Predict the structure of TetR/AcrR family transcriptional regulator.
Amino acid sequence: MEARDTGEALLAGALGQSPPSDALSEQILDAAREQFMTFGLRRSTVDDVAKRAKVSRVTVYRRIGNKDSLVSACLLREYRRFVGDVDEAVAALPTTQDRLVEGFVAVLRHIREHPLVGGLLRLEPEIMLPFLTLESGPAFLAMRGYLADRLREAQRADGRPETDPTPVAELMVRITVSFLLNPVSCFALDDDEQVRAFARGYLLPLLGPR
C-alpha cells in the first residue's frame, strides 16, 4: 500500500489539494461519475448530479462547485486511484528506463480501458480537451507534477546531477494526451509491445545521456 499512498499524495500535492475526505463529497462524486459515464458531459448538468446524489443543487455547489469543478474532481479522483496501481506495477523494476517504459504502457492501457476517462475521450474528445491541457486542466498540471517528482526521485537514486525535470515531464504528458485524444498516427500503438517500442525509441531519449 505504500506505493499507492505515495502516488496519491504526490498527485494531490501537485494540485495543492486533497481528495474529498467526507462521505457526502464522495457521494456527490460517485453520482457525478455515474452520470457522466451514462450520459456524457454534454448532456449532464449539476441538477442531474444533485438528483442522482439525492442532495440539493446548492449542496453540490458548496461541496464541489460548478459543472467544470465536478468534472475536474471526478477525473482527479480517478487519476489518484490509478497512479497507485502504476507505481505498484513498476516498483520492482530495476532501472529508471524500465519503470518509465512500463509506466507509459500502464497509463496508456489504463486510460484507454477506463470506463469514465476512456469512454469520454472516445465519445466527447472536444469537451475533454480543456480538462487535459495546460491552460485549463488541473489534471494536466497534477500529472505533470506527479511525473516530475518521479523523475526527480530517479535522478537521486541513479546518482545523476539534479536538474529540473518539469520540461521533460510536460513533454511526456503532452505526448500521452495527444495519443489519447487523437489515436490516428503513423506510430503503431495497438498493443503493449508496440507501445513499449515507442517509449524506448522516443521517450527514453528525453531523459538525456545515461
About this structure: The chain is about 70% helix and 0% strand. The radius of gyration is 18 Å.
